[in-house]
Amino acid sequence: MAAILQSLQRTVIAGFVLLLAIFIVVGALRGFPTFDHGWGAFVMRWLHVLSGIMWIGMLYYFNFVQMPSMPKIPDEQKPAISKVIAPSALFWFRWGAAATVLTGALLAIMNGYFVNAITLGIVQSGVTGQTVIGIGMWLGLIMAFNVWFIIWPNQQRALGLVEAAPDVKAKSARAAMLFSRTNTLLSVPMLFCMVAAQNAGL
């Protein structure tokens, strides 16, 4: 077991193997599902949630752990964060955002509510549960835009991944922080809207 857990790749593969084992055992006891459109939509929802956990988990790591901790770290140790940890975390952060948006859009298309949600119900049926999830979709799109087109370019300059003058680095670091905090703010209503339509009767 230790040999598996010492490798992230083997750990993730083992997680999927365990999932498959659970699926086979439960399927054998209760009956396997019909692999139809509903099953495909469920798998897409699971991938959407998995991607969202990666994205928002990284967002919360930056805002609740890394940024508050940086002033407490001695200057000689800060390059370990800025040169090693932050670039890796930003990779998973931005691709988690992209995967979340893609799987969410595919899920909405598969379930037939994409147009009604993205137009907040104005086009078809007025205010419905799809209006609420549509608000969540728009908040998520704004957040993903911030990740790719504001936070990431500014972080590249702030972390020295691209050349920039010291004053530009400082301004970029502040811009990245402010938009990361903006995304943290937006994540609260966004996550509420994403689950409210199905679970809160809204």
3D architecture notes:
Helices cover 80% and strands 0% of the residues. The chain contains seven helices and no strands. The chain has helices spanning 2-5, 8-30, 37-69, 78-110, 114-118, 129-158, 166-199. Helix 3 (37-69) runs antiparallel to helix 4, helix 3 (37-69) packs antiparallel against helix 7 and helix 6 packs antiparallel against helix 7.
Reconstruct the topology from this structure:
Layout lengths: L1 H4 L2 H23 L6 H33 L8 H33 L3 H5 L10 H30 L7 H34 L3
Number of helical elements: 7
Return Rg in Å. 20 Å
Q: How many beta-strand runs?
A: 0
Domain count, please report it.
2
3D shape: flat
One letter per element, helices H and strands E, the order comes to: HHHHHHH
Q: Give the DSSP E fraction (strand runs of 2 or more residues).
A: under 5%
Which spans have pLDDT < 50 for at least 5 consecutive residues?
Answer: none
Please outline what is shown here:
The chain has seven helices and no strands. The protein has 202 residues and is an all-alpha fold.
